[in-house]
Amino acid sequence: MEVQEFGKQNSRKIMLLPGNMMNWRQFEAVIPLLEKQYHVIAVSTDGYDDTGKTTFTTAEAMAEKLEQYIKEEQDGAIDLVLGESMGGATAGMLFHRQKVKAIPHNSKCRYGERGAADAKPKAQIILCVLSSILATQMPCRSRRSGA
After folding, report:
1. Tens digit of pLDDT for each residue in 64-100?
2. Percent of the chain beyond pLDDT 90?
3. Alpha carbon 28 to its chain's center
4. Minimal CA–CA distance to 78: which of 88, 69, 89, 87?
5. pLDDT in tens, 16-31
6. For 65, phi and psi rounded to 5 degrees?
7. How far apart are CA 128 and CA 139, in angstroms?
8. C-beta separation of 83 from 102 below 8 A
9. Those residues with Cβ within 8 angstroms of residue 45's Cβ, 6 or more apart along the chain or in another chain
10. Helix (H, G, I), strand (E, B), or coil: what is residue 88?
11. What share of the chain is helix, strand, coil (3-state, %, to 5)?
12. More confident call, 133 vs 4
């Protein structure tokens, strides 16, 4: 497992769990926006952590490993765990096990055909989700309204 932290000066913590066969860099385009207001903890799960020495086994095993990390490195609590695709299974498992304080969210956001060009709309969706869950004062823009 590899963990990258950004915006450590911020008190609210969010953990980003990538989808299947992805690492923390899946969120690289949105991290600069998130780290302005949040302590961002971006995780590469076992098997995708660039060490070549780990293997992903199950979401439950990954949740156990993350629980230990959260207890040891994050004072036992994360304000929000956002899981993309398969990362959502791990986020749900963290919540289900109730061993650490974590609110799960499974992101249905996807990069479109334009790849990184879709990062800004995806970041806005993530910020809107965070705003509603954490009750912060962040403006959410609707594509329909043109705002």
Report:
1. 999 999 999 998 888 888 888 888 788 888 877 776 6
2. 20
3. 11
4. 69
5. 998 888 889 988 888 9
6. -65, -40
7. 7
8. no
9. 1, 17, 18, 23, 56, 62, 87, 90
10. helix
11. 35, 20, 45
12. 4
Task: Look up residue 2 and give its two tokens.
Answer: 């590899």
Question: Angle of helix 59-73 relative to helix 86-97, nearest 10 degrees?
Answer: 60
Q: Backbone phi, then psi, for 45, in 5-degree steps?
A: -75, 165
The amino acid at 38: Y
pTM comes to 0.71
Tokens of 103: 């609110």
Residue 116, pLDDT above cutoff 50? no
Cα–Cα dist 110/146, whole Å:
21
Q: Which of 15, 4, 6, 7 is nearest to 67 (CA)?
A: 15
Residue 77: both structure tokens together: 């609590």
